[in-house]
Design a protein that fits this description.
It is built from 5 helices and 5 strands. It has helices spanning 3-27, 41-64, 85-97, 131-150, 169-177; strands spanning 71-76, 79-84, 102-111, 117-125, 154-164. Helix 1 (3-27) runs antiparallel to helix 2 (41-64). The longest helix has 25 residues, at 3-27.
Length: 178
């Protein structure tokens, strides 16, 4: 799970836990915020259940940071080789960045049960390029580069053209000079 969804889950669990504690304190007879609400046994039981779930998510979230990153393991003659998903995504980005007219590139890697890899590439494309030709070149470039550098077979490279790339002032000036 990425950082932002993890932080949102952690904040959500913390907020729910705080709300449950307030409900339980009201049930116990403590007056909070100058008001006393009637909390029945059903509400208190639900607050206990949600409090326990929140504590579980808070602890679960804390322990996840101790795990090693997601990796692909290759068994070699003298031991295992582990390549992180981040490394595979960086290799995909490097290969994709070599294709002309592509920018704002994002890559995601997924492993299949058979040991093959699926790569998803999202990017912006320069206006005026032939999209099918450019994306075919991108798919071949990424597939060949990742297979060559890692030895892991790439089953599929899915590309998503998100938008037309915005030309920066430097690119416009460079084209005029050429």
């Amino acid at each position: 799970m990425k950082l932002i969804p993890r932080m949102i889950l952690w904040l959500y669990a913390l907020g729910v836990a705080a709300a449950c504690v307030v409900v339980l304190l009201q049930y116990a007879g403590f007056e909070l915020l100058g008001r006393h609400f009637m909390i029945y046994e059903d509400g208190a039981a639900a607050a206990v259940i949600f409090l326990l779930l929140s504590i579980f998510f808070l602890i679960y979230r804390s322990k996840q940071g101790d795990h090693e990153p997601q990796t692909i393991t290759h068994q070699l003659d003298h031991g295992d080789l582990k390549i992180s998903y981040d490394t595979l995504e960086q290799l995909s980005l490097k290969a994709a960045s070599r294709v002309r007219g592509i920018s704002d590139i994002k890559a995601r890697v997924h492993m299949n049960e058979g040991g093959t890899m699926r790569i998803a590439i999202k990017f912006s494309i320069e206006a005026g390029l032939e999209i099918t030709k450019t994306t075919a070149e991108l798919q071949s470039s990424v597939k060949d580069f990742v297979e060559l550098t890692t030895g892991i077979p790439v089953e599929q490279v899915t590309v998503y053209v998100l938008e037309l790339a915005q030309q920066t002032q430097a690119q416009v000036v460079k084209k005029r000079v050429e």
